[in-house]
Structure formats: C-alpha cells, structure tokens
Amino acid sequence: MSEQKIHNGRFTTAGDEEVVLFLLGIRVNKARALRSWLPVVRALDPMLRELAADPRSGLLYSRTQRYGLREVTLLQYWRSTDALIEFSHAAMHRRAWRDFYKVASRGTDVGLWHETYVVPAGHYESIYGSVPLTGLGLVQGLTPIGRRTETARDRLGGAGEPRTAQPAESESQ
Predict the structure, then answer these.
(1) How many other C-beta atoms can be found within 10 angstroms of the C-beta atom of residue 107?
(2) Cβ distance 139 to 167 under 8 Å?
(3) What CA–CA distance (Å, rounded) separates 74 from 78?
(4) Residue 165's closest CA among 24, 18, 57, 35?
(5) Distant-in-sequence, close-in-space partners of 165: CB < 8 Å, separation ≥ 6
(6) Alpha helices (H) in the chain, listed in sequence order
(7) Is 58:86 a contact under the CB 8 Å cutoff?
(8) DSSP symbol at 121
(9) Tell me: the pLDDT tens digits for 85-137?
C-alpha cells in the first residue's frame, strides 16, 4: 500500500456545489445463511468498479466501511440526484436489486437500507486537519482555512444563511 500525502495544516472545501450524499447499508442477520447474503455482498465490488471507471456515471466518491462481522456501509457522494437515479435504473443495479429481492422475500437472512440526502450549495461545511485527501476534500479540493473560514459558523455562512463562494486559494504543501 502506498503512503498517502498528508496535507499539513487546516483546510476546508469551497462548499459551492450541491452534494448528494448516499448511504447504503447491508446487514447479515444470519451468518450461517451464506447462500442468502454472499451474492448481495459480492454484487457490490463489480458495481463500484464499473462506476469508478466511468467519470460520466456521476459517482464522485465512495468509501466502504465495515462494522464488525455483520454490517457494511457505503458512503457515497454523487454529482446529482439525476445521476444517482440513472444508476439505480441501470442494468447492473437492476440485476443486483432483483437478486437481492429473491433472497429478501425468503426471510430475514440479510437486510438492506439506504438514505439519500440532497445538500444545496453553501449548506454544508468541512474541515480537514493534517490528513490525506478524503471525502469532499478529494472531490472538491482543499482550501486553507483563513480568517473568513475559521469556525463552522463562518464556513456555513453565519446565522442560517448559506455562505457565498469565495475565491479558491491555492493548495499549500
């Protein structure tokens, strides 16, 4: 595994683009029921690889997190709801969805959930302190935190108002 470059200092993102956050969870309820949950888990990697290989797919970022032996959650950023919905109707997703429902209709061996959040430009904030590029920082690039972006309230635009886009400063380090 190659060492990722650490960006020394405190950074944020511009926050001037709409973000679609999609969370997908899979929970294995009966570990011994391999025939039920293994096809569901195996369907993830090919879909993610195909999406990542196609910049037109609209998938901006995806991260898979495991919670113990039973749960997997995907955190994804999408360019738009249209891109996410278009993917949900694509052949590879329809096939995986159909296969999941064949299993799901037989019982409770495996569970699935998802949540979709559409976050308008200027209605989110971020901070990255001495870490490699990740999440929205990887997607939108980093901007050093300055006097006008020192606090979360500043980065959100003050008292409930979305912030306006500020000129991007050059990335340092």
Answers:
(1) 11
(2) no
(3) 12
(4) 18
(5) 14, 15, 16, 121, 122
(6) 34-53, 81-88, 91-104, 135-140, 152-156
(7) yes
(8) T
(9) 999 999 888 888 888 777 777 788 888 899 999 999 989 999 999 999 999 99
